[in-house]
């Protein structure tokens, strides 16, 4: 909101004899943003406290892809120490791995399951060669975990060490307090959009696609 002298504006309004017209213009000025939104070619940087409200990957597509991988994929058992996760299960992880045929996009997925936790991992390998393992917690030990990126616990394979705990306030007055919503990714906003869009596209290519 821009600083402005209200007494000066009132004097101009009275002298001009056109208060209604003047007030309409003043209202537009008052409501205008102080700075322009970033446009094409401008760098967009992450800002702490501003949350991404878009979820990448519809729940039905996430769960549909999980079903295909568990049905058609190769099954193996791996140690909980073989894969770095925000919260390592205490028991052996069951892994399902499947690569969709080329006419379905050729996307490579894994599903990890252990102790009530289910993770869908997408191996994103763009032509540039910058490979990423995108892990979407579908279910787990936290009520804030949801299918789709980027909710609690979701991360990239090399980004676990950059995750931070997210806290939220609850109640008011003497009942006010904070509680943990679990670890969240440390990716910047641009990377979250880029990887989220790639994940969503792979899900839409894969779900419902047969042999």
What does this entry look like structurally?
The structure is a single chain. The chain has helices at about 5-15, 20-30, 60-70, 190-205, and strands at about 75-80, 95-100, 110-115, 115-125, 130-140, 155, 165-170, 175-185. The chain has a domain at about 60-160 and about 190-205. About 25% of the residues lie in helices and about 25% in strands. The strands form two sheets. A six-stranded antiparallel beta sheet has the order 1-2-3-4-5-6, with helices on one face. Strands 7-8 form a two-stranded antiparallel ribbon. The relative contact order is 0.15. The longest helix has 18 residues, at about 190-205. It has four helices and eight strands; from the N terminus they run αααββββββββα. With about 210 residues, the protein is an alpha+beta fold. The chain starts with 5 loop residues before the first helix and ends in a 5-residue tail after the last helix.
Structural descriptors:
alpha+beta, six-stranded antiparallel β-sheet, 211 residues, disordered N terminus, two-stranded antiparallel sheet, single chain, globular
């Amino acid at each position: 909101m821009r600083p402005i002298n209200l007494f000066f504006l009132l004097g101009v309004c009275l002298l001009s004899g056109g208060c209604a017209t003047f007030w309409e213009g003043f209202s537009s000025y008052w409501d205008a943003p102080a700075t322009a939104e970033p446009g094409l070619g401008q760098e967009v940087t992450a800002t702490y406290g501003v949350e991404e409200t878009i979820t990448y990957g519809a729940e039905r597509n996430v769960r549909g892809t999980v079903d295909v991988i568990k049905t058609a994929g190769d099954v193996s058992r791996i140690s909980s120490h073989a894969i770095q996760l925000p919260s390592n299960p205490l028991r052996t992880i069951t892994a399902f791995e499947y690569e969709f045929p080329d006419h379905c996009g050729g996307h490579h997925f894994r599903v990890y399951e252990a102790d009530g936790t289910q993770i869908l991992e997408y191996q994103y390998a763009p032509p540039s060669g910058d490979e990423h393992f995108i892990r979407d917690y579908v279910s787990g030990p936290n009520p804030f975990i949801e299918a789709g990126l980027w909710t609690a616990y979701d991360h990239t394979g090399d980004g676990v060490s950059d995750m931070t705990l997210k806290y939220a306030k609850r109640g008011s007055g003497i009942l006010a307090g904070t509680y943990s919503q679990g670890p969240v990714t440390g990716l910047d906003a641009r990377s979250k959009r880029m990887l989220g869009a790639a994940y969503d596209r792979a899900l839409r290519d894969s779900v419902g696609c047969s042999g």
